[in-house]
Amino acid sequence: MHAPSPDAPILFFDSGLGGLTVLGPTRALLPTAPIVYAADYAGLPYGKKSDEELAARVPALLGRLVERYQPRLAVIACNTASTIALPHVRAALDLPIVGTVPAIKPAAEMTTSGVIGVLGTEATVRQPYVDDLSARFAAGKTVLRHGSPGLVTAAEAKLHGLPVDLGAVRDAIAGLRDQPGGDAIDVIVLACTHFPLLRDELQALAGPGVALIDGAAGIARRIASLTQGQRWPAEARPGTAAFTHSNASPPPSRSALAPYGIGHIETI
Ligand code: DGL
Question: Cell wall biogenesis/degradation among the record's keywords (predicted)?
Fold first, then answer.
């Protein structure tokens, strides 16, 4: 493959705004990287969809996005889409694809009680991929999982400037704690990219003795390493956010996206 032009963007993809939590640390490492942030609002929430639907939908949509924006690399900044559709996307598209998977390995290294909580979408927590990560990296530890659709809605509301439903945050923590052995959880993996948008709310309810971790910093490092030696523009320019059309979910305001370096919003 020949070297990408400096203007070729990095494409971030999620069902909604969760992928911004991966975009943030990536911009810190690659401040002038051109950015396209794509959110599939027409398909949100992915956590409620079947594996078959996502395995077909995600590669098809990413194919359209790659054709339109000609990125140098695509990031599936969504645990649900990654744990289900990553192999299908890699088989269908001819560019580097970075996925997002639950940070079970660092959680297993960090726990002292030996009990880890994994908070994701319903679709993510039922994946064999999560069984596999637990078996490989957390053997001998207890891994408790809970799927929380309410946190996705609450995170979206927060970035739309609406009040956060603290009941949803409480239910999510209780969904882990109320399981047998749940009292001993000392690390919670935020296995949905939306959830770090609610880090303060989750931390307040989980308590100071519980560490919350996600994989965003590691993904940012992976993106920087895969693009090492490539050329970038001399100065940062405003990025683009593209939303698939949904009557139910209008895009957020420009000011909500400005801290992530996004200046243009389009509907596709
Ligand atoms: N942000 C997504 C994830 O990381 C999914 C949210 C959803 O659409 O349910 O899993």
Answer: yes
243 three-class SS = strand
pTM of the model as a whole: 0.97
Instruction: Give the whole-angstrom CA distance, residue 14 versus residue 85.
Output: 12
Lookup: tokens for 93: 């598209």
Length of the chain: 268
Assess whether the C-beta atom of 21 lies below 6 angstroms from ligand 1: no
Which CATH number goes with the domain that contains 59?
3.40.50.1860
- In the residue annotation, 192 being an active-site residue is answered as yes
* Domains: count for the chain: 2
pLDDT tens readout for residues 126-160: 999 999 999 999 999 999 999 999 999 999 999 99
Which residue out of 33, 58, 73, 78 is catalytically annotated? 78
In a domain? residue 233: yes
Within this chain, do residues 54 and 112 fall inside the same structural domain, yes or no? Answer: no
Residue 2 binned pLDDT confidence (cut-offs 50, 70, 90): confident
Domain that holds residue 165: 104-214
Cβ 194 vs Cβ 155: under 8 Å: yes
Q: What percent of the chain has pLDDT over 70?
A: 100
